[in-house]
Write a structure and sequence with these properties.
Number of domains: 1
Order of helices and strands: HHHHHHHHHHHH
Structural class: mainly alpha
Largest sheet: none
Helix content: over 70%
Number of helices: 12
Radius of gyration: 20 Å
Number of strands: 0
Length: about 260
């Protein structure tokens, strides 16, 4: 039987939906995004009368309801790493690459299935988070509608951000081929290095932190409001996509040039 990209995609989809850990990790991401977004919205609504003038000026009801992304992206990033390092750790990758000698269709298949599934789940979750958060904020007349300026872009942007962040996790996993190293690198890039950069002199950090993956991508859904000199939404997303493209190219080069 001839090996085609369509058949490889079907094979990768079968692997994806048959793994119990995949379903559980996606479910954790959904719970984190909706639950934490609702918690932030409820607490903000109840405590808004105690906010200082500066806090009131910075308040954004849209990004408040989407605050769960900061936590859900960890689950998605870990899933991206596991999607490929799991096969390397068990040796199953040898079977995959034996069946597909050209190798790269395996990587494209994994990326397509993963990105498509994460985008679909994240988009639904993003809308649920927004509407639930706004309903909680509206109890104190703080919410906005989906037709408000920037709302729809932020909701779609949240799903796009989660998807590309997950793809970066998968590319890192493909490069390092080790679960612990892949997860550690993803966590370092998205959660450790950005706050540490704040310890640098402002003359340096003010021109650096906005280009970190998490800060650049967060501009698309309004999560970079505390970042000095934050990038514009689509410029920030372009920077995030550039990180993903470079890592995917490196992963493809290694898969093509080295043994599994």
């Amino acid at each position: 039987m001839q090996v085609t990209q369509a058949r490889v995609l079907h094979s990768e989809w079968t692997k994806f939906r048959s793994l119990r850990s995949t379903v559980w990790t996606l479910l954790i991401a959904v719970i984190l995004m909706v639950g934490i977004g609702a918690l932030f919205s409820a607490v903000t609504a109840n405590q808004f009368h105690t906010f200082s003038a500066g806090d009131v000026a910075k308040f954004n009801p849209i990004s408040t309801s989407l605050n769960g992304i900061a936590f859900a992206q960890l689950a998605i990033g870990v899933l991206g790493v596991l999607m490929i390092t799991g096969e390397y750790s068990t040796g199953m990758i040898r079977s995959s690459l034996t069946a597909v000698p050209r190798r790269l269709p395996v990587l494209w298949g994994k990326l397509t299935v993963f990105a498509g599934m994460v985008l679909a789940v994240s988009l639904v979750t993003s809308f649920v988070s927004f509407f639930l958060g706004q309903s909680l904020l509206n109890s104190h007349n703080l919410g906005v509608s989906i037709s408000s300026p920037g709302a729809l872009r932020s909701v779609f942007g949240a799903a796009l951000y989660m998807t590309v962040a997950g793809v970066i996790g998968m590319a890192i996993g493909s490069l390092l081929r080790n679960t612990a190293a892949g997860i550690s690198t993803f966590v370092g890039a998205f959660f450790v290095i950005p706050p540490l950069a704040g310890l640098l002199p402002s003359s340096i950090s003010d021109h650096l932190v906005q280009y970190f993956p998490s800060n650049a991508g967060a501009a698309l859904y309004g999560g970079a409001r505390d970042v000095t000199n934050a990038l514009s939404p689509w410029t920030g997303f372009g920077v995030l996509c550039a990180y993903a493209a470079v890592l995917i190219a490196a992963a493809a080069w290694r898969m093509r040039r080295t043994d599994a």
